[in-house]
């Protein structure tokens, strides 16, 4: 096991500085297999995942680029699932679990130094690292052009799939698929319930994390738990084919939801409750459909009932035609019905993780099957909860969960994470597709109870019209809509380049053409699916055939700085996007709106008419890994030094790509400086500072920390901070 870990650690992500070294590996064989390899920089920018492998001396020996669609000129990026199914009949290849090899090179000198088997093992480790990095991917496909023979070291690793009308012997002259299946590179885990004989292995695994359990409960606490089982608890273990235990997971269906509701915002998840099964359907089969409620046996449980818990309303299209007396009677009947529905008993819809441990950190990347098996232990519950103490390092297992926001002003020693069985592929594939006219009804149900839902629906209606400049897409899981998005072509790239630091993105946009950039207009997504947001935004790029996706977030200075204009739910996308720095010199007076004329007369919106923060999503952001910093950070005072520290900590180019801070607080006696609009007299005086009202509207840093108005009196580092 140590050997495997040592080999895997030689694989790392490709940096832009590595492209020059990789270009020296490109030869005629590479160009024949990958015609796009003539420009490795463009390939790197369009890839979802780019890995390389180094030898013991730190020298690059191989590299692999993966994308979410194949490079076949005759096949549109949005149509590859139909192409693979009809031409090759590959079962199980879906958008959610398939990536395509867009670039693969290895050092021939390295291949000559070792034997052929060892050269194949070197590439095997590279594919293995790719499966670990893209843990939702179970299949990687290389499209081999016709008339080419695959190198021997690759032929030993990949399975050849010819077209349906071709035999394997005659496939040399045909375009074939070379498939890398996950089970051939990563040993599958077998999940089962724990038995008494597993005690020593499980206790040893948990001792690697913390020996407190052994100290309190002795050396045989697992054996005693299995010997005297409780109906509310299950202990699962995962083992390899050689019967070696690699992970343990203990779950319990007894959850104090009232305690969690006092400290966390659970309204987006219906309080992790659902109606009783016998009450989920009424006698009138069409009543729930008229109310827009999901049935009790929906694969999403009661996640959608969050809108109904707050607004139980009936909609009758013929109500306006009734008499005034009938309308009053109907209103009285609705009030009675609403009271009855609010009194309907609910039952818990979640179970909790009690214990989790892995023997090797690499095995933690493939514990998704262990989590999926825990849902089978409680088939009547849809959510899995996990509490992590504050200050603990982020672990890959949490990538399957969504962090639940803490209530304003509440302090709790742990962070709450939630996962849904639908996010793990247990109810069908998660995919994106273009919206259709009939999706409007389901979209209205999805947005019921959401602020400015009519604005979002109106944008969807406009996008569905013929010759519309906008395009609407929906996100579906098991054919049920769980989110929607509206895009349009970004026509102001030149202005954005003048106003923000696009860097290499500007040259990339100009090289790819006018249609290469899109703008995210609307986005609504069920909160539980935020853990798959990178994949969904990557699907939007593929379906719309864009290279870049921009999002403008306007902030109204008269409102709370953390609230977006109009109350739109769009800031959900910020967790997967990268913020872009504004060009300060283009705002000589940051305290007022300064209009500047440009050569682009066809642009309607000048960047300075309405200030906004700019964010971008690239294909590489789809599989970008961000560690959550689960530490409480308190900054005292709102001086320029403190605000600059927060700016670089939260939205700095290096931190924003790899880290996400979840608990940052600014304590200031007067709140943020320059929060109100300045009078005209003050705008006549040059402003020498930086963090003024206008600058905060050009960045999104205020979205990532809380502002507490008070004066710090003392700090008790062992407990809490005190302020008045």
From TrEMBL:
Pfam families: CFAP61_N (PF16092). InterPro entries: CFAP61, CFAP61_N. It comes from the Eukaryota. Residues 278-294, 305-328 have a biased composition (Basic and acidic residues). Residues 12-274 form the Cilia- and flagella-associated protein 61 N-terminal domain. Residues 278-346 are annotated as: Disordered. Residues 334-343 have a biased composition (Low complexity). PANTHER family: CILIA- AND FLAGELLA-ASSOCIATED PROTEIN 61. This is Cilia- and flagella-associated protein 61 N-terminal domain-containing protein. It comes from Trichogramma kaykai. The lineage of its organism: Eukaryota, Metazoa, Ecdysozoa, Arthropoda, Hexapoda.
């Amino acid at each position: 096991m140590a050997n495997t870990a040592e080999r895997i650690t030689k694989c790392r992500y490709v940096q832009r500085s590595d492209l020059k070294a990789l270009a020296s590996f490109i030869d005629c064989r590479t160009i024949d297999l990958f015609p796009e390899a003539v420009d490795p920089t463009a390939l790197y920018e369009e890839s979802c995942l780019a890995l390389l492998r180094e030898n013991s001396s730190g020298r690059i020996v191989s590299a692999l680029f993966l994308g979410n669609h194949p490079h076949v000129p005759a096949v549109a990026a949005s149509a590859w699932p139909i192409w693979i199914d009809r031409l090759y009949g590959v079962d199980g290849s879906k958008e959610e679990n398939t990536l395509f090899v867009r670039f693969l090179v290895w050092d021939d000198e390295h291949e000559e130094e070792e034997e052929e088997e060892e050269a194949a093992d070197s590439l095997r480790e590279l594919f293995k690292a790719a499966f670990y990095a893209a843990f939702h991917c179970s299949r990687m496909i290389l499209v081999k052009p016709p008339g080419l023979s695959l190198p021997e070291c690759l032929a030993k690793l990949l399975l050849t799939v010819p077209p349906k009308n071709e035999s394997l012997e005659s496939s040399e002259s045909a375009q074939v698929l070379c498939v890398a299946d996950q089970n051939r590179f990563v040993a599958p885990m077998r999940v089962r319930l724990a038995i008494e004989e597993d005690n020593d292995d499980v206790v040893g695994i948990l001792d690697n994390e913390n020996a407190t359990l052994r100290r309190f409960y002795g050396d045989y606490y697992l054996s005693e738990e299995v010997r005297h089982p409780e109906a509310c608890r299950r202990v699962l273990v995962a083992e390899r084919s050689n019967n070696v235990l690699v992970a343990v997971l203990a779950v319990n269906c007894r959850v104090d939801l009232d305690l969690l509701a006092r400290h966390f915002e659970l309204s987006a998840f219906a309080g992790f409750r659902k109606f009783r099964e016998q009450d989920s359907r009424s006698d009138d089969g069409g009543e729930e459909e008229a109310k827009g409620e999901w049935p009790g046996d929906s694969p999403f449980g009661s996640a959608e009932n969050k809108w109904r818990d707050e607004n139980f309303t009936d909609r009758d299209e013929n109500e306006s035609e009734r008499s005034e007396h009938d309308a009053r009677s109907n209103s009285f009947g609705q009030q009675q019905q609403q009271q009855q529905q609010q009194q309907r008993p609910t039952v818990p819809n979640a179970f909790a993780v009690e214990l989790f441990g892995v023997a090797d950190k690499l095995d933690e990347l493939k514990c998704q099957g262990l989590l999926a098996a825990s849902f089978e232990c409680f088939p009547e519950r849809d959510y899995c909860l996990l509490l992590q103490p504050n200050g603990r390092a982020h672990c890959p297992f949490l990538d399957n969960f969504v962090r639940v926001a803490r209530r304003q002003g509440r302090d709790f020693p742990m962070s709450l994470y939630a996962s849904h069985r639908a996010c793990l592929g247990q109810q069908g594939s998660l995919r994106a597709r273009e919206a259709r006219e009939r999706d409007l009804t389901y979209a209205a149900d999805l947005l019921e109870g959401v602020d400015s839902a009519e604005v979002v629906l109106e944008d969807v209606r406009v996008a569905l019209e013929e010759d519309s400049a906008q395009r609407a897409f929906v996100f579906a899981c098991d054919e049920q809509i769980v989110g929607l998005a509206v895009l349009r072509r970004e026509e102001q790239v030149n202005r954005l380049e003048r106003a923000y630091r696009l860097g290499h993105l500007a040259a990339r946009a100009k090289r790819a053409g006018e249609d290469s950039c899109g703008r995210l207009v609307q986005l609504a997504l069920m909160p539980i699916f935020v853990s798959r947001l990178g994949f969904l935004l990557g699907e939007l790029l593929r379906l719309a055939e864009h290279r870049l996706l921009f999002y403008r977030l306007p902030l109204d200075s008269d409102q709370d700085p953390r609230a977006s204009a109009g109350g739109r739910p769009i800031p959900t996308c910020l967790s997967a996007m990268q913020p872009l720095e504004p060009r300060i010199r283009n705002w000589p007076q940051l305290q007022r709106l300064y209009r500047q004329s440009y050569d682009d007369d066809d642009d309607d919106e000048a960047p300075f008419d309405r200030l906004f923060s700019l964010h971008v999503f690239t294909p590489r952001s789809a599989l970008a890994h961000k560690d959550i910093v689960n530490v409480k950070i308190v900054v005292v005072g709102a001086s320029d030094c403190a605000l600059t520290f927060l700016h670089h900590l939260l939205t700095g180019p290096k931190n924003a790509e790899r880290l996400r801070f979840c608990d940052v607080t600014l304590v200031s006696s007067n709140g943020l400086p320059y929060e109100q609009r300045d009078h005209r007299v003050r705008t006549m005086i040059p402003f020498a500072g930086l963090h003024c009202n206008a600058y905060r509207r050009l960045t999104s840093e205020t979205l990532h920390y809380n502002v507490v108005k008070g004066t710090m009196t003392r700090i008790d580092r062992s407990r809490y901070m005190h302020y008045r």
